[in-house]
What we know:
alpha+beta
Amino acid sequence: MAASKKVEVSAENIANLSSTGALDPADGPAPYETQVTVQTSDPVGGVQAEAIPKDPGFVTAYDANSPFANEEGLIGVPNTNLAEEAVNLKTAELAYKANLKTLEAAEEINDELFSLFDQKV
């Protein structure tokens, strides 16, 4: 589930890369705020993952032609780093693969236990 959340958040950040907005709510909608995935240990086992806004979630950029530009020509753009998102996606992929290997190992152990049980019966 944590890897799925990481993929979901990265995909959303990449999809909204060009979602600009106004710095002042009076001038139009706010820009998309980049999210990050935070994982915490679950007391029962495993991890919990949640998306929180990156600090800062957006940065200023100059685009005087934008309908969201203020008097100085500044707009808000997401604070998304594509290289960072690529690393997040690769990390999630590796987590999926590691979890699959764990499941495969558990299945092999179960098969071995059942074969031992069959031999004794």
